[in-house]
Amino acid sequence: MISLLNMKIGIRLAFIVLLALAPVRSIAQGDGPRAYLPVPGETNFITMHGISTSGNQSYNSGTVVRGGDIDVSVGVLQYARAFDIWGKQGGVLAVLPVGKVEGNIDLPMQSRSGDSSGLGDIQLGFAYSILGAPYLTQDDYAQFDPGFVFSIVGKLLASTGEYDSDHTINLGTNRNAVQILFPTAWYFT
User: Helix, strand, coil: what percent of the chain each, to 5?
Assistant: First the structure.
């Protein structure tokens, strides 16, 4: 019992050290702070949400543009299902974005503007809780105190979105990508 407690404390301290050593300035974007919360097992989700941003990033993950002034208005339809994988919480997800992106990009020798609307790139993925989120029935979930949760998420971003090579700004990326994420949360109760 004490060695398990020491391991949990060690993992938490390692996480805090990694955060402390992270660069002060970074370019990043993500799925949001509650995208991978533990949920009761065998739960199906169909969610719709909107994204409205103005800044230097497009809708698609990893598309951050220095010198960009981009407005994004996207509706996102998402399906997710949680289930048991070896006693831990696992799940699958599918995401379909629809909307519009427009803006200006300042390049070294010129400035370009454009817009794009329609379907974005479809995302298919899986999630698995490595630490802290066991598979729970709905009754067990009501009593569960998650504490520290560390998961892995893998996503395939398929190049199905609206793309025109003549446009400076596109809703789709015109390339397939694989994204590996390690969502980490520490719940204080």
Answer: 15, 45, 40
Tell whether 17 is covered by a domain: no
Lowest pLDDT segment from 80-89, 103-112, 125-134, 153-162:
103-112
Q: What is the mean pLDDT of the chain?
A: 81
DSSP characters over 8-20:
HHHHHHHHHHHHH
- pLDDT value at residue 19: 65
Residue 89: give the domain boundaries: 35-186
DSSP state of 142: H
Enumerate residues 6+ apart whose C-beta is below 8 A from 145.
187, 189
Measured CA distances, 1 to 4, 7, 13, 136, 165 (Å): 5, 10, 18, 22, 59
Q: Are 65 and 113 in contact (CB under 8 A)?
A: no
- Residue 25 placed within a domain: no
Report which residue type is found at 177.
A
Whether 4 is covered by a domain: the verdict is no
